[in-house]
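Q: Now give one record:
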Amino acid sequence: MSITKRLALQDGERVEGIVRRSFVAYAPAIVGGILVIFLAFFLIAPLLARGRFGAAIFIALIFVGMLAVLRGCWLWRRNAFVVTNHRIVDIDQRGFFRTAISDIRFEQIEDVAIEIHGIIATIFHLGTIRVRGAGMHAVLELRAIPRPERIQELIGRLRSAAPKTKAEHATDLTRMTIEALTQLRARIDVELKLRQPNRGITDDESGISGSDPKFVIRNP
């Protein structure tokens, strides 16, 4: 099953890109598995000379080597960032039978950072990309990505093109003055009283002139 088929895409959502770790990140495990297989065949004669015990060791070495190779290829194929026009989905395959999937919408993203660290990463131009959401302690992270700055640019472009939500158009209360917050609270109190059934308010209760076109004073 392909990665895109594992996602429940929303209406109007389309996949813009799939980002996987570099194959170099899994090379040690894969190369180690191949070496174990070669070792098994290199020792086949003395092992088989020991009868069933030697044959069991030979089969065990082949099995371990193949398992290491298959696991490395499986993890490389299944671990990915899926970037859509609405969000980023982090698929974290942690073994043959364990998968963690998390996502973050573009309007929730606060910061997208990349880091290239170490000799191997510098030679192969591999980096780590971290996506942090507003108010989130955890981050979405994918290591050993080829040319991470391209992914950072793609995410930035999609964030700019993403439709704005009502929350983004709402007033940022943290930037309002105390006087403005006090007035806003008074207006909210008035509106709450107006919406109570069989309850009217006077001009004195509202604290707002009845000539204000934004508010209508109802009488019982």
The longest strand covers residues 126-133. The beta strands are 15-20, 80-84, 87-93, 99-105, 109-115, 126-133, 139-146. Residues 52-78 form the longest helix (27 residues).
